[in-house]
Amino acid sequence: MKTISVAHSPDADDIFMYYAIKFGWVTPKDAKFENIADDIESLNQATLKGEYDICAISFALYPFVKDDYALLKTAVSFGEGYGPKLIKKKGTTLKKNFKVALSGEFTTNALIFKIAYPNARITYLNFLEIEEAVLNGTVDAGVLIHESILNYNEQLEVEREIWDIWVELSGGDLPLPLGGMCLRRSLPLSDAINYENTLIKAVEVANKNRKVLAPMLIEKGLIRVNAETLDKYLDLYANDNSVKMSELQYKALDKLYELGYKNGFYENLVKSQDFLIPSEYEELRAK
């Protein structure tokens, strides 16, 4: 039986979407999934090095790894009226060249931030360290992600929502692409289809059984937040829209890549649906 490495972040939505597999509710055919949890920028960097078979990534990274990894249709996170937050100390005014902490060079929030604030001085920190860096004055501001957007120190305030920047850049009718998953292209196509279908099923099962799964994750100490915060966070990032990407979500991804290309961050213009696993192969083979 093949062992396939599957890497995801330790934040609540990734843990939730993956643990239907971990608990044995969904299993891949003729393979064993071995999961690794790490912060999203570490996963981005690992994907650049080709370390994992399947890996969660920031959507903004994908154009840099498209030749080696296919984009998966499932386990996706999009913001709709919400997303990362640029925060600062209350009562302060940011200068044009303010110093800011971002959660990683290849994160989606970093791409959007760089387009909006070309003169900012950027430093990269683990997302768990950003709030404290703003509070102690190491940086003037920081972009909070994951569960941090729901609970942050009362001495801080939101300077700007990344969602609002996205609306201005994209035209205002698209969800904000944040994160997804990719799969190593060197895997046999039939296996790739099997693994993607397994992950689609896992996200679907987790979502349908949320009232059972969420308390289990809390009881086992697998989640950093309490039940109330977990419920709010899953509403945002692990929901019906996470199971399988829609045409609107593909359109949003294409807009993200268009903005990155026009602003000089990508060498080529990427169309997301050109880089999916051709699952129709399975149907053709069955005829």
Describe the structure.
With 287 residues, the protein is α/β, with parallel strands linked by helices. The chain folds into two domains: 2-78 and 177-286, Periplasmic binding protein-like II (D-Maltodextrin-Binding Protein, domain 2), CATH 3.40.190.10; 85-170, D-Maltodextrin-Binding Protein, domain 2 (3-Layer(aba) Sandwich), CATH 3.40.190. The protein is built from eleven helices and eleven strands. Strands 1, 2, 3, 4, 5 and 11 form a six-stranded mixed β-sheet that branches. It has helices spanning 12-22, 40-48, 108-116, 130-135, 162-170, 189-208, 210-219, 227-237, 240-243, 247-262, 280-286; strands spanning 2-8, 31-37, 54-58, 69-71, 77-79, 85-89, 99-102, 121-124, 141-144, 156-161, 176-184. 39% of the residues lie in helices and 20% in strands. The model has no long low-confidence stretch (mean pLDDT 91). It is globular. Helix 1 crosses helix 7 (210-219).
Which key features would you list for this structure?
11 strands; D-Maltodextrin-Binding Protein, domain 2; 2 domains; five-stranded mixed beta sheet; six-stranded mixed beta sheet; 287 residues; alpha/beta
- The percentage helix is 25-40%
CATH topology of the largest domain: D-Maltodextrin-Binding Protein, domain 2
What is the distance, rounded to the nearest whole angstrom, between the alpha carbons of the first and last residues?
27 Å
Taking all Cα atoms into account, the compactness measure Rg is 19 Å
User: What gross morphology would you assign?
Assistant: globular
Count of the separate structural domains: 2
- Spell out the CATH superfamily of the largest domain: Periplasmic binding protein-like II
Write the CATH architecture name of the largest domain.
3-Layer(aba) Sandwich
